[in-house]
Design brief:
The complex is a heterodimer of chains A (about 260) and B (about 200). Chain A is α/β, with parallel strands linked by helices and about 260 residues long. Chain A is built from 13 helices and eight strands. Chain B has a domain of about 80 residues: Arc Repressor Mutant, subunit A. Classes of the chains: A alpha/beta (about 260), B mainly alpha (about 200). The interface between A and B is medium-sized, with 19 and 18 residues.
């Protein structure tokens, strides 16, 4: 089983959206895929998937009797693809428990995340996609340490290059994973690109931007996903690739999936 | 009648007083009485000695019982102390500490963290690496004070000492006192040594 984490320095970069869409695309390819929401401080995967989960990953971190089976929600019958997800709680108190956790609880959390990884692997999952909290939150690092690939999501129109660079050089250098940059909501001269394909001049602009990022971060830019009005309009209400598999955005996600899989 | 007969006749008739004031004729009876008294005293002493010995025996049995009980408590306390020390460290590790561990040791690290206590072979069975390699990695983790080595019979167990979980408190304890008798023998020796030194 391979684990892919989506992370960012700041919030609002589209990590959750990209994670859910990548998980969907991998499941559409026939891979048994689990989507884990480790964004305990700002969970919105439940809204995205239209789910009201009874038992969440928060419960698993605090209750040693719970297993992966207890928290995983299956979408197999709903979407006819081998997609499963475990959610972070939206309960204020449970979110508070995560914020208040001392170092002993953080160790327990790490151990339970490691056990969950082993359980998923033993259950025959091919891929696990993790959505993390932005920045250097301990829960995010729990997710990052078990990942085989990390996608640092940058919203092209607004990101703190020095802060991101500092996090990348200090934190990412310690990770065992293959680290990539995914540029999201890229705005070129033609916005959105016609049929989702950049024009020649736009490609030059995007390439130049990717080159700058690669030099600054010393990480490979995996893909640049254009800013699509349809995606923005739909917002966080649904998994876009599921409802619009032929939309250019979904093609970009498929391309992202292909490039990540090639990297393993 | 000769002179001797005459004297005997005289003795029978005239009581003779001894220096202690008893009549000579009474002495055998007194001796017999005294002997009876001595016999009674000895019997009384014997009975009380038997009672005392029975009491002492009972006390010894009671002491043995209490010693066994305190030994069991000692074993439990000593055992759980050792274990609690290993399990409830004040310095647990989290994922940031995990990232400080060199990458080649991380798989071994997380395995021993999850197992808490294992031989190199048990770790190797989990990681899929060879036993000698895992043994080397575990020793490197011991150098970094994440685990301690403990010889248990033929095997060397590696114990994760930065754990927080208290789930396994009923694991076997690590006291050196293997038997109650051995404990009693040692305590006896200590008491003997202590009393000898105080006598000197």
């Amino acid at each position: 089983m391979k684990i892919i984490a989506f992370h960012s320095y700041k919030g609002g970069t589209g990590k959750t959206h990209l994670s859910a869409n990548l998980a969907t695309v991998l499941a559409q390819k026939g891979f048994k895929t689990a989507l884990l929401d480790l964004d305990f401080r700002g969970p919105n995967l439940q809204t995205l998937c239209g789910i009201d989960a009874n038992i969440t990953i928060n419960d698993l971190l605090f209750d040693p009797d719970l297993t992966g089976e207890d928290i995983l929600v299956s979408f197999e019958s709903q979407y006819k693809i081998p997609l499963f997800a475990a959610f972070a709680s939206t309960d204020f108190r449970k979110m508070g428990d995560i914020v208040r956790a001392d170092k002993k609880q953080r160790q327990r959390s790490l151990k339970r995340i490691l056990r969950l990884r082993d359980e998923l692997s033993d259950s025959g999952f091919d891929y696990t996609i993790i959505d993390t909290s932005p920045g250097v939150q301990m829960e995010s690092i729990d997710g990052l340490v078990i990942s085989d690939a990390t996608c640092l999501v940058l919203k092209a129109d607004d990101f703190d290059i020095s802060g991101t660079k500092s996090m990348v050089t200090q934190l990412y250098s310690l990770l065992d994973s293959i680290n990539y940059v995914v540029l999201n909501r890229v705005v070129a001269e033609t916005c959105p690109p016609e049929h989702g394909v950049w024009s020649k001049s736009d490609i030059e602009l995007v390439n130049q931007f990717e080159k700058t990022i690669t030099e600054e971060m010393r990480m490979r830019v995996l893909t640049s996903i254009p800013c699509f009005c349809e995606v923005a309009r739909e917002g966080s209400r649904s998994v876009f690739s599921l409802d619009h598999p032929d939309h250019p955005f979904s093609h970009h996600i498929k391309e992202l999936a292909t490039r990540i899989l090639e990297g393993f | 009648m000769g002179q001797e007969d005459r004297l005997n006749e005289k003795d029978k008739k005239a009581p003779v007083e001894t220096r202690s004031g008893y009549l000579l004729q009474e002495i055998p009876e007194i001796i017999a009485q005294n002997l009876q008294d001595v016999r009674d005293d000895i019997q009384k002493t014997n009975s009380s000695l038997q009672l005392m010995l029975a009491g002492i025996h009972k006390e010894i049995e009671e002491i043995k019982k209490l010693t066994r009980q305190s030994h069991d408590i000692f074993r439990q306390v000593a055992g759980s102390k050792v274990l609690r020390k290993h399990i409830e460290t004040e310095d647990p590790v989290d994922s940031l500490d995990f990232l400080e561990v060199p990458p080649h040791l991380r798989r071994t690290f997380e395995t021993i963290m999850l197992l808490k206590r294992a031989t190199a072979k048990e770790v190797a069975d989990r990681t899929g690496k060879s036993r000698p390699l895992e043994s080397d990695y575990l020793n490197q983790l011991a150098d970094r004070k994440f685990v301690v080595k403990k010889k248990e019979g033929k095997h060397v167990k590696f114990i994760f000492i930065r754990a927080t979980e208290v789930e396994d408190e009923d694991e076997e304890n690590n006291t050196n006192y293997n038997a109650t008798e051995e404990f009693i023998r040692m305590r006896k020796m200590e008491v003997t040594n202590a009393s000898n030194s105080s006598e000197r």
